Amino acid sequence: xxxxxxxxxxxxxxxxxxxxxxxxxxxxxxxxxxxxxxxxxxxxxxxxxxxxxxxxxxxxxxxx
Length: 64
What we know:
It contains no helices and 5 strands.
């Protein structure tokens, strides 16, 4: 993933699309500007979702 790439992510369980505007390599997160104009900071990437519901962030990327 690079700055300017378009990615799909989940926002409150609803699929959304946006463009990466910042990458934080220390925390392994990306910040995305969604097509609807909202900025979603610090999006985490998961292979599988955590088992505890409280550990799931409001927006995230699920790798397949």
